[in-house]
TrEMBL record:
It is a multi-pass membrane protein. The keyword Calcium does not apply. Keywords: Cell membrane, Membrane, Transmembrane, Transmembrane helix, Transport. The keyword Cell cycle does not apply. One of its GO terms (cellular component) is plasma membrane. GO terms for molecular function: transmembrane transporter activity. This is MFS transporter. CDD domains: MFS_ShiA_like.
Length: 451
């Protein structure tokens, strides 16, 4: 799909460069995140936890997947604050480096057989660093691409962040397919480390692109005229608290992604169903491949008809379709699983996934956009991350109660629907006027000189 021309107030080529930087950074972030998710479902129970109790080992391994989501709200507070004070670019570079280093270190960790209980402790520490990085990555990338985008193409340009997310998931799955097919002894001894080490290559490419980005026109104008907020969080909670809560509720739709990519994978390859590990990884790969095309199409539609209707299609539709997808897994029919996996995750979920970067970002003014997106999304994502752990418990001692997990996932899609129904439609509002409120002069705003 061709990229529209830059708006008149943006430096030539910067909207394209911002979208590319957002894509590559998100690809790295979620390559790292989802190789961890695949490893947590398939490998880490045997490498880092007690093999004598497989059910408990799997539960603990999936819990470490959720630990990063618990760290994300804390990271959002700090990275959101500084992103609205010093700019979007510096946060984008920082999060990229942090994610690349922490993921590489996971590939270097000793196993439980080598150092005992220290092994899972070190794993959790690296996972926390991944979570802090992710807390600022999407919010800064979304803010950068939204504020550089032509006003009538904000949905399309910001969707590159989520296209990158799907690209990272696709890359993670494709890397894991040959790794998962290795002989069991080689896989557990050293093969699982390879995907984590490979993240360094993506980090280097992303860094080269991001360090040449210019700050956005709207942030630069804000800093030069009214000045930036001394305490962005105070301004955010005073003027945008309802929108923060709305984003928290809407972000719960990410539960569909975590249940699909982690719990469903573990369930399908468990003794209860017995599907082939490599075949199930291909379901995720093909679904993400379809999503790469669907996300910009849904986002472009939102530029025409609005953010709310497209988001509602994704949130409500994927909540319903998860029943069919998990039922298909329970039948053991691979063609059925493949088709429903692609429709559920590749097509319908992409509607919510493709539009939320613009939908959430347009709720906030330039002064607090990064803070509002970071805090709102990361609290919602934290709940979504632990949805995998809750699903493992809800599924019962044998891990095969898929219907309860489907009901749980559908329930988590209700708050996003309510949030969208109560939100303002913003796709036609000029970028400088997004999220503006009538306000009096406030001591919370720094002058252009920064004092």
């Amino acid at each position: 799909m061709s990229v529209p021309a830059a708006p008149l107030d943006a430096p030539p080529g910067q909207p394209r460069k911002a979208a590319t930087a957002a894509w590559i950074g998100s690809a790295l972030e979620y390559y790292d995140f989802f190789i961890y998710g695949s490893a947590a479902a398939l490998i880490f129970p045997e490498v880092f936890f007690d093999e004598s109790d497989p059910a408990t080992a799997t539960l603990l391994s999936l819990a470490t997947f959720g630990v990063a989501y618990a760290a994300r709200p804390v990271g959002a507070l700090f990275l959101g604050h500084f992103g609205d004070k010093v700019g979007r670019k510096k946060i984008m570079v920082f999060t990229l480096i942090l994610m690349g280093v922490s993921t590489f270190l996971i590939g270097c960790l000793p196993t439980r057989d080598q150092v005992g209980t220290l092994a899972p402790v070190l794993l959790v520490l690296c996972r926390v660093l991944q979570g802090i990085s992710a807390a600022g990555e999407q919010a800064s990338a979304n803010s950068m691409s939204l504020e550089h985008a032509p006003p009538d193409k904000r949905g399309f340009f910001t969707s590159f962040t989520l296209s990158g997310t799907q690209g990272g998931q696709l890359l993670a799955t494709l890397v894991f397919i040959p790794v998962a097919a290795m002989p069991e002894d080689q896989l557990l001894a050293w093969g699982w480390r390879i995907p984590f080490w490979m993240s360094i290559a993506v980090a280097v490419v992303g860094y080269v692109i991001r360090r040449t980005l210019q700050e956005t026109p709207t942030f630069t104008q804000q800093a030069a005229t009214e000045g930036v907020a001394k305490m962005p969080l105070a301004v955010l909670m005073r003027e945008h608290w309802a929108d923060v809560l709305r984003v928290v509720a809407a972000a719960l739709v990410a539960s569909v992604s975590t249940i699909f990519t982690v719990w469903a994978l573990a369930y399908a390859t468990s003794d209860a169903v017995g599907m082939d590990r490599t075949s199930m990884l291909w379901v995720g790969a093909l679904a993400n491949l379809v999503a790469l095309g669907a996300i910009p199409l849904w986002a472009t539609l939102s530029d025409r008809i609005g953010r709310r209707p497209v988001f509602l299609i994704g949130a409500a539709g994927s909540g319903v379709l998860m029943f069919l997808y998990l039922w298909a897994i329970s039948t053991g029919s691979y063609p059925l699983v493949l088709v429903l996996g692609i429709v559920t995750f590749g097509v319908v979920y992409s509607a919510a996934n493709g539009v939320w970067p613009s939908f959430y970002g347009e709720m906030f003014s330039t002064r607090v956009r990064l803070s509002g997106m970071a805090i709102g999304t990361q609290i919602g994502f934290a709940i979504a991350g632990f949805a995998v752990t809750f699903a493992a418990q809800i599924a019962g001692p044998d891990g095969d109660d898929w219907l309860s997990v489907a009901l749980f996932t559908a329930a988590l899609c209700v708050p996003p629907v309510i949030a969208a129904l109560t939100a303002r439609e913003t796709h036609k509002i000029p970028t400088p006027q997004l999220g503006e409120r009538i306000r009096q002069e406030s001591p919370d705003v720094l002058s252009p000189s920064g004092v």
